[in-house]
Amino acid sequence: MTLSIERPSLEQLAALLLERAGLKITPDGYYGLRLALQARMPALGITDSAEYVGRLKQRAGEQELRSLIPLVTVGKTEFFRDTRQFLAFEKNVLPQVMERGRLEGRQTRLWSAGCATGEEPYSLAMVALERGETPATADVWATDLNPAATESAARAFFPARRLVGVSEERIARFFKEVEGGYELVQPVRDLIRFEGHNLAAPMWTQVQAKSLDVIFCRNVIIYFDQPTIVGVMERFYESLRPGGWMFLGYSESLFKISTRFEMVEVGGTFAYQRPLQPNRRAPAPVTTVVRPSAPPPPQRSPTDVESVLRNLKRQAAIVPAPPRPSAPPQPLLRPRPPPRKTPVERLAEVVEAIEKGDFPKALRTVRALADEEPDDLAARLTLGNVHALMGNLDEAREAYQYALSREALCVEARLYTALAEMQGGQLEDAKLELTRALFLEPTLAVGHYLLGQVNERRGDNDGALRAYRNAISQRKQPKHDLIGHFPDLPRSNEAIAQAAQYRLAALSER
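RESULT FIELD:
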């Protein structure tokens, strides 16, 4: 099938994504759009990009737009993205699974699920090489639904601008400069297998049970519905060896999805671990070793004892005792500094300060945390929220935009931006942000409720009624746990539904 993909279609698609999802795709990102169209157009039997974009603009095209978005966002990946997670992997997780692989005489197997254009698996391979791994001892399996993405990744070529996050030492060791950019050296490429794979498929014929040590699947499951996520997590669990690890994106959680994994804080971040199977063998019996008693010391007669004492006193009188050396001066003991608090503990301090109304302290603490941990999405969003609560709306918007630059589909950034716009009286902007948040997460009950509030203030009572009814309809849906802290937001879908019912009653009396 020959595909026709013209630039005007790419421009229209970029505008549509900005309008519907708030995704800003610059001309530099059109290559990613082209890859996405190459994957989706044949699935619909369409060969012309203008026809495909026209279908997306129709009401019936909303579901197809949701299918397209995961492929569009492949251009958002980076080498060593989310520094804290990679440091936890490098310093804590990888040495553990490597040692276990060596003891069991097998490869250490890593899976980059949803690898996009390859930055993540290549980052894993570089870290493995730095730890002394070879193709005989380590295997990095990289998969993606989009065949065009994996083909691009397998070429191992990247323009200079894509090497953001790679240190000069790693560039010198693992890349060679070629015309137009950089190419990864062969030892890195030898560790990786690129293949197509559909995570949403009900069966994974390419994956054996208990065969993997670490899975990276970040910013992928946010595009799946609840039943699909549950199935994917079940298959991830079965694929991992007992004691194996899984890393998800910061905006992803297994809350009400799976209870089989253990959530573990490691290296200042969180990862999920398949628990080790308990050792069911009976403990070895305790054996008491009876040792023969030592023979009693020979008994001396009292006369012998008195004689020895007299001799000792006589010698002491003749030979003066040597002077007792003075004890060396003891160094002053300095108190140990308290252990450095983890980002999670520091963020808890911020939340406590917010709840007490001590916003200056909250701002100092969360600003320092966000500066030290630039990839911590929760810290960055909470920084924006503290600014908003203090009335610093420009600073709040800046924090939310930074979060979106790190995570383009961050629903919370859209929601909190809408709250800031509502606070500043910018109701049209607030409505736009809430619409984008609800496009990304249609079951976000608090988003529907806030949209009802915005529509009420805009004088759009019909729109408010629809939004409140939508909020009520999400009562039985799993609650979306928001990243970042904002006080006074309803804590459960049931509370949101009750608030929406009160507003419906008030509107009906008008």
